[in-house]
Amino acid sequence: MLARNRALANLKAGYLFPEIAKRRRDFLSKHPEAKIISLGIGNTTEPITPHIDEGLVQGARRLATKEGYTGYGDEQGMTALREKIAQVFYNSLKDCRQISADEVFISDGAKCDIGRLQLLFGASVPVAVQDPSYPVYVDGSVLIGAAGPWNGTGYEKIQYLPCTAENNYFPDLNRLPTNGLVYFCSPNNPTGAVATKDQLTALVQAVKQTGSILMFDAAYAEYIRSPDLPKSIFQIPGADTCAIEVNSFSKPIGFTGVRLGWTVVPKTLVYEGGESVNADWNRICTTVFNGASNIAQYGGLAALDSEGLKEMRQLTDYYLENARLIRHTLQNLGITCVGGDNAPYIWAQFPGKTSWDVFETILETCWVVTTPGSGFGPAGESFIRFSAFGHREELQKPASGLNGWHSRPSFDIVPPF
Ligand code: PL4
Q: Which atom of ligand 1 is found nearest the CA of 133?
């Protein structure tokens, strides 16, 4: 009988987000009367805005005409969309390295790209991640064999880079691996921290000095409101010779279900032997990916004209206002938290408790689903992530306290939160 892929056996328990969904279902089966508020999985809740929706509708209508019908498209995406992404998200940014359309690869989302990008580097690459971080970086590394089994505190061979209150959620760059792959996410999921230009400059220099490649996840860049904070790694000098950027339409325009993202692989990025990473990524995309949905790409094009960009701004403003309300509520309860000003996540600390215990308490007493910080890495223990993706009316009953989020006992009767 065929043996199981050993890498799969190395994965600890289930993937974080289905586990949260399961606990929510279990709670509801015991308490069908509960009106759950979901601030757990970072899943958008507001409708797709009218102009962008019209882009999708027109894209679908075209397919019903002889002139407009298209079947398989280019695996790399529509040229018009690649050009528009380069122009809107990079070439119009202050100090950004100019990006050409053939450095932009359209995809069905950042998560899928992160999985496929690991094929570029294989099983023998040393991997470093911010701790805490989006679980796909680590779980994907385990799947490809670049990480060993769980040893009780972390996966073997993964270099965890703690990001804590003590280092202001920016890691010690002396701990980067040599000739390795370094995952970095800013605005950060889950802490909400956004790296400054100086911090990213130091990161790029350290990555270059160690001969590594930086995998920069900018999925939340459109939540940045402070004008001095970089939205792309390509605003940092030298990044075009050491970095790849993944990004997504999920969070800025609610395409979590529609599925559309992109990756920028500069043509100036080469391996040790001088071979082009862009050419290899093109080879991988054309081999194991068949292109993003053409309807989704028409929606993406609509999102990048002036009306679409206005809607993107309004939608991200909406979730940022949710974040402000959540953070205000938590702070009024005396809970220490960060994030939420340039990111849709609030990172709240519950000293002396385990994340899963706090998760259960909040669920049972407040009917609020959150995400336990320990699910993002060892340094996330005793933290809870609150997502700002939710309906405003649920957060505003009243906005003065978590006891307004439901009709049952509340946080403030569960000391010592
Ligand atoms: C739940 C840093 C959320 N089932 O939608 P995509 O694939 O373009 O983007 C996924 C993604 C990429 N990079 C970062 C992210 O935070 C996310 C989405 N993360 C979360 O709650 O942390 C959704 C998670 C989804 C998943 O597993 O991604």
A: 2
